[in-house]
Amino acid sequence: MNVIYIARKQYILNKAIESRLKNADINVLPLPEDIDEVYRHRHEADIFLFNANDDNVPQSLRLIKYLTELCRDGHKSFCLIGNENFMSNISGMPVAKLISQIYVTPVNLDKMVADMLALSATHDEFRRKKDILIVDDDNDFLMIVQRWLKNSYSVTGVRSGLEALQPLALGQFDLILLDYEMPEMDGYEVMGRIRQNPEMSNIPIIFLTGLNDRENVMRIIKHRPDGYILKSMKKLELLDTLERFFAESILGKGVF
Questions:
Q1: Side-chain half-sphere of 81: how many Cα atoms within 13 Å?
Q2: Residue 251: CB partners within 8 Å, gap ≥ 6?
Q3: Which residue from 165, 182, 239, 248 lies 20 to 30 Å from 105 (Cα-Cα)?
């Protein structure tokens, strides 16, 4: 587990934070309050911890804005340390909504360490290769999507709602991509059966649809799936949509 710790001065608090994190087997990469340095090391950790400098508020605010954008785009977590006066300066700013954890000095180091470990666990879960079940009666579309996703996900494809029930009974999936317009058993009916089964009911379901008119979209939304995807979506759009879905559902605040 790696944490990038950003601070301007070598306060006693900095040493205490680094020591407590290292004692919890957390690797700490200390960096100065410098955007160029942060950019160079941005791929070395999923968690950024910034001890803000209240002596130069404008400079710290510029770095906070940069860090929130970096973490949002890279699906990372940004945590902020500062005194009460500094925190009051950012409380009403849009960036405040993108901060995973805020620590007002004096910092509760036990809570901070526990938070870092919990954040690390969520990032491990986010990086884990996900299992996706695709249900679609269009064999050509099914094969194309399986080919698009196979390098990033473990993918199982079936051609009907009845066929979907067998792999669902054998193992847990992280997501179901479910065709809404299928003969015999449509997507809504399949979703109903899944939701009624306690062992499957927590699996997120995203509807696939070839129709993008307002009436069809509103009908899909009424059934309250976890999202919907147009079948006309291109490969990169689909991959980005799925990555953002997992980032939001697993990492949540501070990454989206």
A1: 21
A2: 75, 77, 122, 123, 126
A3: 248
What's the pLDDT tens digit per position in 176-189?
999 987 777 778 88
Neighbours of 48 (CB within 10 A): 27
- Are 20 and 49 within 8 A, CB to CB? no
CA distance linking residue 252 with residue 246, whole number of Å? 9
Distances (CA, A) of 127 to 60, 105, 189, 237, 252: 30, 32, 32, 19, 14
| Each residue's pLDDT tens digit, 8-53 | 876 778 889 999 999 999 999 999 999 999 999 999 999 999 999 7
| Distance from C-alpha of 180 to C-alpha of 185, rounded to nearest angstrom | 9
Pairwise CA distance, residues 120 & 103, whole Å: 17
Per-residue three-class SS string for the chain? CEEEEEECCCCHHHHHHHHHHHHCCCEEEEECCCHHHHHHCHHHCCEEEEECCCCCHHHHHHHHHHHHHHHHHHCCEEEEEECHHHHHHHCCCHHHHHCCEEEECCCCHHHHHHHHHHHHHHHHHHHCCCEEEEECCCHHHHHHHHHHHCCCCEEEEECCHHHHHHHHHHCCCCEEEEECCCCCCCHHHHHHHHHHCCCCCCCCEEEEECCCCHHHHHHHHHCCCCEEEECCCCHHHHHHHHHHHHHHHHHCCCCC
Nearest Cα to Cα of residue 108 among 210, 17, 226, 233: 17
**Cα–chain center distance at 123:** 8
